[in-house]
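Hi U.,

Before I forget, here's the chain from the pilot set. I'm dumping it here mostly so it's searchable later in email.
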Amino acid sequence: MNIDAIRQIGKDLLKMVPKYRFADNAMHSIQVGAAGDKTFPMDKAAEDIILAHLKALNEPMMIVSEEIGFVKLHGGGRITVLVDPIDGSKNAVTGLPFFCTTMAVLDGNKIGDVFLAYTINLISGDEFWAKKGEGAYLNGRLINTKKGSNIDSLYYEVRNPSKEIPMLTELFAKATRTRCYGAMALALAHMAAGAAGVFVSPSKSRPFDFAGGVLLVKEAGGIVSDINGNSIDDVEAGIKHATTILASANTEIHERALKHLREEALFKHSAFKWEGGLIRAIGEPDYVEFSELCGVDDAIIKLKQNTEQLLSGLPANNVLLWGPRGTGKSSCVKALLSCYQARGLKMIEAARDDLVNVSALLNLLRGRTQKFIIFCDDLSFDREETEYRHLKSILEGGLERRPANVLLYATSNRRHLMPELISDNMPVRDANGELHPCDSLEERVSLSDRFGLKVGFSKFDKNTYLDIVNNYIKKRGIKIPDDELIGRAMEWSIRQGGYTGRAARQFVDNLEGLLALQKGRK
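Structure:
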């Protein structure tokens, strides 16, 4: 398959448009397409033309089309053709002159496998095409994305304006003008030709909407990712797969756009995750209420007091919560978000390995009016690891001051965050041992010393475990005789290996589900 064969399809499509655009039944939906959208007569006519041409090529291929779904031609094969017969069909049938046909040819089944793209403006007849490694073209003329660092014009697409427009306002403020045309493939094509610096869609779009446009932008010199900065090359070319889109004229503009999108997110959400140097909002945080927690009252008092100092703009400390597993350390931290998000507290989860890039995160948060807790769960290091030294200077001791609006709350099963040996506290007997072993010991405990507030958690006994179970039972309104509850709870604790808050919650989860299932069978 080559571009000349696809351009022949474009010629027949142009002839079809006048017949269907203003027909009496133009706005009459004849079916719901495979992708779930309404199919208008023009959609069906365009798809029929495309399929007839592709069949005539006598080449094995798989067709993925918005209206008809999956079709194997001549037995199928590795080559896949993504087709949107009419992108912007609602524009077409309501008289708006901005709609197109777009096709993408893949040697595989992922967006990164697209090697040929074609989009035709069905009003003007302008043709955009690109072949991987050979550039992008408009009516046979080589095109390039705009130069420079200014965003200038910005194109966008949204499906849920009340939710998604607020996500874009920080980015909109940096553009000279914004446009929403209602045909993603054509908007991407014009962006590839230098008409705009950015195209963004926080809505999740399906591959046949954007696959051809992505190759056009890339071959014209642009860059494409999702709105979090992640590559979309591994998105599968199927009807059920979808992703957000951020396309920019060049790397500099792309980095600016990502920065503005992340800044906007910081105003709209309360919970985030820091991964690979990027921050993303958590749509469904795991909220915990303090009323769910038992046996940790002293810890809660200390955590609330320190957090309220942060929220009041007063000096406060980084916090290390240490103690045995399942004693409520992580739950106490998560409960802070539930308790204080109404007062503007925001929480950012960061894995231990992502703390290496925490300087970039602190720079993003520095100077903001919001207050942030960076939450690192299960923080610890082996004796051979040295990454903890970077974290030490961030916590305290570096030349740059930690932002006053940011604290680090970490949990660990180890008080000093590193393994401790009996030999560390014994006289040196090995002639080949370290000359100053106390120095190494000081080095290892110095990380935990950087946490100004250390909150210890103790193992739960049987009574505390049962108190936690009973608290969950009451909060969820579960009806069960006391003696039966105690028997089941004790049996569960034996299987789970001890009296922990985690075991108590898991027991109640299991009990609630089991009782509901039994009730439903009666």
